[in-house]
Amino acid sequence: MRHQYRKWIGYVFFENGGRTVDYLFELVTENVYVLAVWDSAWNSYNNCYLVVKKEGVTLIDCGKKEHSSYLVEALNKLGRSPEDVTLIVATHGHEDHVQGAAVFKNAKKFIHPNERSHIEYPEPDEFTYELSDHGILEDYEYRLVGLHTPGSIAIFHQPSKILFTGDFLCFFGDPLSKDGLVSDGNDLKKEWLEYLRGGGVSKDHLDRLLEGLSTMKGFDAHIMCTGHGGVLVGDIERFISGLLEIGENLGKNEIVQ
Ligand SMILES: [Zn+2]
Ligand SMILES: [Zn+2]
């Protein structure tokens, strides 16, 4: 009975009969799910991810506090409960990535030590700050990318070949791909390439972006799961190489000028 239908939509209904999407919850690949919560305050989807194993559930990021009930609903849809969450890895310490952690009392919670001083979480000591700049934690290989926040990490899940990029590379405030939340996202990839080409990333940040992208290229990812919006399936290496090429050219032009 595993994997029958694997898409859910949560709606908020208004008194006048209207409704708006509250969250999308979808299968990404075997045993990995995305919960994309529509955040009307930020006009963006905020994403978190559930990696489901018999022994327990891992969350990569866990959303804002006010959205944690959606995460519980999502777990329930999979026949799991908050008690089954045994591991949380946060890509960085912003509220939309850590605050939901409060609900999961049985989970070990990891974040990079560079986030300790500014983590947006009321009980910072609930998190463990033992990640190094490059290491392995259970099925996950992670690396410090240090852009967006000083302790932002990229996380590679070897069994599913998914790269979790957090907000280092994401689609904050962007519409979803015309092909849906989980898709090849060619339109989104194209927009990111254009954004970079058009100078969307400041010169100060460009070097670190390129460094982070080179790191990500080494992972041989098949799927890219970001902190906000569309989940990209396929051609990830080509996408990253395209970004690197544009970024390196921008860097060269800067030297010539
Ligand atoms: Zn962030
Ligand atoms: Zn975020």
From TrEMBL:
<dbReference type="InterPro" id="IPR050855">
    <property type="entry name" value="NDM-1-like"/>
</dbReference>
<protein>
    <recommendedName>
        <fullName>Metallo-beta-lactamase domain-containing protein</fullName>
    </recommendedName>
</protein>
<feature type="domain" description="Metallo-beta-lactamase">
    <location>
        <begin position="45"/>
        <end position="205"/>
    </location>
</feature>
<dbReference type="InterPro" id="IPR036866">
    <property type="entry name" value="RibonucZ/Hydroxyglut_hydro"/>
</dbReference>
<dbReference type="InterPro" id="IPR001279">
    <property type="entry name" value="Metallo-B-lactamas"/>
</dbReference>
<dbReference type="Pfam" id="PF00753">
    <property type="entry name" value="Lactamase_B"/>
</dbReference>
